[in-house]
Structure formats: structure tokens, C-alpha cells
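In response to the reviewer comment on reproducibility (Comment 2.3), we provide here a single inverse folding case reported in full, input and output, so that an independent group could reproduce the run without further information from us. The C-alpha cells appear first.
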């Protein structure tokens, strides 16, 4: 109880500190504040869970089966630059002291619009693999495949949204929708693995429908990005 009270006080202090900081219209500053608050919320939420569920938070891009259907930490914006002044091609995330036994997650950041679109097009093949796994009853295999898809949709969508914001004002909304739908598939597969999505047949039908909706959103996003 004492630990819970201390964590809640820490959370309240962090929120008050962020909210009382001087107002800024700088986009990067807003992103940094949101990421900081998201990290604090995720950390406190994990610490408040019972011991048996304390690991129920994963980094986006962690492909371990126990990450299927659990809360995913947002991928941070890459602020590092290489020797030529270009945005770093990789993003490295670490669980730090909270889960020191877990390896770091290293993700590839697209370096051009063509590369970002290519990353999305590759996920069409992944959709086929996910559907085959679901149809054969291999829910864990489908879930791991979705874990691989999530960071690619996120990073490619993020790059395209920034690059095309002026040409297509709704592109950010489309990217957010794409990521939300992918997380829905991940969440539902997690429920299926726990037996909380009905019978095997009902679970398969539900998940196949989810994947189809995700595929439609992905195709629409690619078409918009390649106009």
C-alpha cells in the first residue's frame, strides 16, 4: 500500500511538472512531452500490477510470444543523426532496470518515402501469413507475425505522414487508423490465446475479419501515399 501511494505521488508530480512547463507550439516539444508522460504512465501501471502480471507491458517491436495482446510502449521519435547529418536509420529501445533480462529492441527507420512505402507493401505478404496461421489454428504464430508488423506500420506510416502532410492533410489520421487496427488484431489474438474470444471457430472468424479490415486500410494508405 505504501509503495502504491508513493508511485501515485510520483505520477501526480510528473504530470504537474509537465503541465506547468512553459507553453510551446513547437511540434517536437509537444511530442517529447507526450512521450515522457506515456513512459511514466506505462511504468507506474506496470508497477501497480500484481507480481504475476508485472511484465504485462512490452516495447513495440519485441517479438516474444508473451508480448501478444499486451500493452505496447510507443516507439520514440529518433533524434540521433549520423555523420552526414541524416536521421539515424535505427531506433534502439531498452526495458532498462524494469526488465533487465529482456534484450534491447532495434528497429529500422525508413530513410526515404520510397523505402517507407516499400515497408508497407511488404506487410501485404505478412497479412497473407497471418491469415494462414489463423485459419490453421496457429494463434501464437499469427500473434508473433503481428508483432513483427506493428513497428513497420508505425515507422513507415510516421515517415509518410510527415512527408505528405501538406499534400494530404488527412494522412496522419489514416496512419493512426492503420496502427489502431493493427493493435486491435494484436489484442484480439491475445484474447483468443486466453480463450476469451469464444470457440475456436468464432475466434478464427473474428480474427480473419479483423485482418481483412486491416488489409483494406493498409491498401488505402499505400494508394494515397503513391498517388
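Designed residues, in position order:
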Amino acid at each position: 500500500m505504501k509503495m502504491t501511494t508513493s508511485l501515485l505521488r510520483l505520477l501526480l508530480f510528473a504530470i504537474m511538472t509537465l503541465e506547468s512547463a512553459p507553453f510551446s507550439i513547437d511540434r517536437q516539444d509537444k511530442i517529447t512531452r507526450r512521450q515522457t508522460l506515456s513512459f511514466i504512465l506505462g511504468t507506474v501501471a506496470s508497477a501497480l500490477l500484481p507480481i504475476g502480471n508485472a511484465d504485462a507491458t512490452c516495447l513495440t517491436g519485441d517479438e516474444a510470444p508473451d508480448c501478444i495482446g499486451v500493452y505496447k510502449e510507443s516507439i520514440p521519435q529518433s533524434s540521433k543523426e549520423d555523420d552526414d547529418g541524416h536521421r539515424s536509420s535505427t531506433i534502439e529501445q531498452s526495458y532498462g532496470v524494469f526488465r533487465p533480462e529482456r534484450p534491447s529492441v532495434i528497429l529500422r527507420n525508413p530513410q526515404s518515402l520510397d523505402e517507407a512505402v516499400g515497408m508497407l507493401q511488404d506487410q501485404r505478404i505478412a497479412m497473407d501469413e497471418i491469415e494462414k496461421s489463423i485459419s490453421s489454428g496457429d494463434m501464437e504464430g499469427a500473434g508473433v507475425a503481428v508483432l513483427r508488423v506493428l513497428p513497420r506500420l508505425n515507422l513507415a506510416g510516421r515517415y509518410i505522414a510527415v512527408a505528405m502532410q501538406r499534400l494530404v492533410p488527412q494522412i496522419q489520421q489514416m496512419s493512426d487508423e492503420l496502427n489502431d487496427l493493427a493493435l486491435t488484431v494484436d489484442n484480439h489474438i491475445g484474447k483468443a490465446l486466453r480463450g476469451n474470444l469464444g470457440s475456436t471457430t468464432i475466434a478464427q472468424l473474428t480474427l480473419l475479419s479483423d485482418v481483412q479490415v486491416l488489409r483494406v486500410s493498409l491498401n488505402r494508405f499505400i494508394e494515397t501515399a503513391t498517388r
